[in-house]
Amino acid sequence: MIQQxxxxxxxxxxxxxxxxxxxxxxVAVRHQMSQGDRRTxxxxxxxxxQPLYLAGTGLDVVGFACMVGALRWLPLFLVQCAAxxxxxxxxxxxxxxxxxxxxRSSRWALVSMLAGLVLLASGARPGSAPQTPxxxxxxxxAGAGILAILGVISLRARxxxxxxxxxxxxxxxxxxxxxxxxxxxxxxxxxxxxPATYALALCGxxxxxxxxxxxxxxxxxxxxxxxxxVETSTASAVGLALLGDQTRAGFLVxxxxxxxxxxxxxxxxxxxRTAMPAPETADQPAx
Length: 287
Prior knowledge:
This protein is 75% helix and 0% strand. By secondary structure, it is an all-alpha fold. It has one domain.
């Protein structure tokens, strides 16, 4: 029980860190666009080295460390869904600091997200990740390579913001899967030998670049919604199918309901333009 509570605290710490990071990253991306550099590949690479974006990335690293800690005791589907609460953190920052407002529907979305997380927490079975077969880790690394190639191709296009958001969501899902696999590793030597380590790093870099590019080419609220939905559903499915994640006996239906409610609430919040802070308009949050 104590381990589950600690895991939940770490999962929500992930949401807090990434929620604040989203604001910093959005400001950096929009500032880069305001400089007139709209060539996707070059602009995205320059945006991610802006001081504010790097500060946001630093918070993402903190959030990722918290996620790795949470995954030592909790299944991937629960940690991923708890992390989606970052969109609520972003909305709260917009309301209290930048003076944005929340529609009544968004307030209900916050309430339903909390209810969904309660259902998930009640149905998740705590437990460490089992040792993952090398073939699964190899497949993850190969998938990361394919995503990187597709990402490079998409960066050369001008109107593929939604596609880039999908690819970013898949890449971030890969980081979650890699983190769950590595939570079963107990030494640095074993971690360096694991293909999951390199898949995680490649997915992280790919996701960061693609998300920055998607912010420039599509509504950022839509990009957020796509990334949340793709990342959470993909990582959770892999965790249940391949990584030993399980629900408590008799809690399958409540857990599934909690998953749908949590992800749906996060998407609803992400699509509410008035809920998100913006450096220039009310439509500019980030991940």
